[in-house]
């Protein structure tokens, strides 16, 4: 009994999951761009069809009305012309004109009335208003300005024409009023368009079917692109888009591939960086351990040897600290909360202090260290961070320089910016690497950078600090001829808003 209930509950849960999935799939379909496009095409087709049919029907009905108006107008003129044979209305009556009008009215389903100058109806082929007075605008207008007037009343469904009647002497003796009931025109037009509605329904159906087929093939490349994105989301980061379609889709594929390539490069750089940093961190520790083990295994070691070993240990510790400091600096600069401690600083004095500190390093390679200042410069900067910028640039210029070379540092300013130029006679940077030297973790010569203690973070830190000061940095280099770094920073620091920070 327990097993049966368990199986029933399992089936019920599975049924609910299937039902939920079905609802999700249906909602997903109705929310899809493909469905929306088909729906828009369907609505536009229906609206266009209905509008077109109504427009054609209106035009057709109007043409029928105009044709009937022309007919009534012509009949009124022809009937009125019959009286020109007679001198008076009574003479025409005696000659049998009235009988002819009655017959003509009956055969053609039109109503004919004759209104004399006293506005009395002397003849009504429908025998309804004979002897009554008829005063309307058309009759009055014809008496005032003799000409045939014809109009159509949509309310009554009647076409009415009023035409002047002249006798044989050319005198206006009456007004002939002809009426034709055309209320059946709407029915005639409706019958004519019943088949058109069927044809239009078939056309709309064909349009929908074609639109479904077209949208299927149109969105096929998009489905392919979405599938690739899903695969990347699953972890297949080596996937790239090779899709053909609209200009927008090709551009999307191009941008996607570019992003994936950059991410791949970044991952490779990070992997390489981790490997390099691991090696860099491990090497000093290994050296320290070797030196310490050497001291521990020896007895009666002279003090001079102890001092020599301790100097080497301190050097390795300093090396380790440099690597850790660069890593910590990078982390601090990456934080959104990174701030600057802005103060007014004399740039001339700052540069002289930095160069004085680095002079012993330059002397080891007999490198001439020159400083040129064109004017006194005071700027609002973070002194510690700008010191780090100048130190990194000058130190790199010394490290990657030849023996007996030179490093030239210059300072200048205008009314808005100050400029620092660090130029050297060193090995230079290959053209293919110049666009990447500011990338974190990137090192031009990995072997040489390891020898000089480089981690690939220095120039990245430099650029980030300069950007934080709303400045710019440029690189000019030729392999074997030296390198020049030039950066520009505003003299007066302006606090940026969040949008500016995000852009930087």
Walkthrough of the structure:
60% of the residues lie in helices and 16% in strands. The chain is α+β, with helices and mostly antiparallel strands. It folds into 4 domains: 1-28; 80-184, Beta-Lactamase; 247-329, Orthogonal Bundle (Helix Hairpins), CATH 1.10.287; 339-503, Heat Shock Protein 90 (2-Layer Sandwich). The longest helix has 51 residues, at 247-297. The model is unreliable at 498-504 (pLDDT under 50).
Low-confidence stretches: 498-504
Q: What's the CATH class of the largest domain, please?
A: Alpha Beta
Per the CATH scheme, the topology name of the largest domain is Heat Shock Protein 90
Share of helix, binned: 55-70%
CATH architectural arrangement of the largest domain: 2-Layer Sandwich
What's the count of strands? 12
- Strand percentage: 15-25%
Q: What's the SSE pattern?
A: HHHHEEHEEEHHHEHEEHEEHHHEEH
Structural class determined from secondary elements: alpha+beta
Strand order in the largest sheet: 2-1-5-4-3
Rough shape? Answer: elongated
The overall average pLDDT, rounded, is: 80
- For the record, the count of structural domains works out to 4
Distance between the termini: 69 Å
Instruction: Give the biggest beta sheet.
Output: 5 strands, antiparallel
């Amino acid at each position: 009994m327990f097993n049966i209930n368990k199986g029933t509950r399992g089936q019920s849960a599975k049924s609910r999951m299937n039902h939920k999935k079905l609802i999700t799939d249906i909602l997903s379909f109705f929310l899809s761009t493909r469905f929306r496009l088909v729906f828009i095409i369907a609505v536009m087709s229906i609206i266009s069809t209905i509008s077109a049919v109504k427009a054609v029907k209106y035009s057709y009905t109007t043409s029928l009305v105009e044709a009937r108006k022309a007919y009534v107008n012509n009949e009124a003129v022809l009937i009125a012309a019959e009286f020109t044979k007679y001198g008076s209305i009574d003479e025409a009556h005696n000659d049998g004109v009235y009988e002819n009008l009655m017959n003509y009215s009956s055969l053609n389903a039109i109503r004919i009335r004759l209104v004399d100058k006293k506005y009395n109806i002397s003849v009504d082929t429908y025998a309804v208003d004979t002897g009554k007075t008829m005063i309307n605008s058309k009759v009055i207008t014809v008496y005032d300005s003799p000409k045939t007037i014809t109009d159509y009343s949509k309310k009554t469904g009647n076409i009415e024409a009023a035409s002047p009647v002249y006798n044989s002497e050319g005198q206006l003796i009456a007004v002939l009023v002809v009426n034709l009931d055309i209320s059946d025109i709407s029915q005639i037009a409706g019958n004519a368009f019943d088949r058109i509605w069927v044809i239009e329904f078939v056309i709309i159906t064909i349009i929908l079917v074609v639109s479904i087929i077209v949208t299927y093939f149109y969105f096929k490349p998009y489905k392919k692109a979405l599938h690739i994105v899903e695969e990347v989301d699953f972890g297949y980061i080596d996937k790239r888009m090779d899709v053909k379609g609209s200009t927008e889709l090709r551009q999307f594929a191009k941008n996607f591939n570019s992003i994936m390539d950059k991410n791949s490069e970044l991952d490779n750089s990070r992997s390489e960086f981790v490997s390099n940093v691991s090696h860099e961190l491990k090497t000093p520790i290994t050296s320290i351990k070797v030196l310490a083990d050497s001291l521990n295994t020896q007895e009666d070691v002279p003090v001079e040897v102890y001092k020599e070993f301790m100097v080497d240990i301190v050097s390795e510790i300093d090396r380790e600290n440099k690597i850790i400091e660069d890593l910590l600096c990078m982390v601090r600069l990456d934080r959104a909360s990174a701030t600057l401690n802005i103060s007014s600083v004399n740039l001339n004095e700052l540069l002289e202090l930095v160069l004085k500190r680095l002079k012993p390093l330059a002397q080891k390679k007999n490198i001439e260290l020159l400083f040129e200042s064109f004017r006194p410069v005071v700027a609002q900067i973070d002194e510690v961070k700008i010191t780090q910028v100048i130190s990194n640039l000058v130190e790199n210029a010394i490290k990657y320089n030849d023996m007996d070379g030179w490093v030239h540092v210059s300072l200048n300013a205008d009314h808005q910016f100050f400029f620092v130029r660090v130029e050297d006679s060193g090995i230079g940077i290959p053209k293919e690497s110049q666009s990447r030297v500011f990338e974190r973790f990137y090192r031009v010569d990995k072997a040489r950078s390891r020898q000089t203690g480089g981690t690939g973070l220095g120039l990245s830190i430099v650029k980030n600090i300069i950007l934080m000061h709303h400045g710019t940095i440029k690189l000019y280099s030729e392999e074997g001829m030296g390198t020049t770094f030039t950066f520009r920073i505003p003299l007066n620091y302006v606090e940026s808003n969040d949008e500016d920070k995000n852009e930087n």
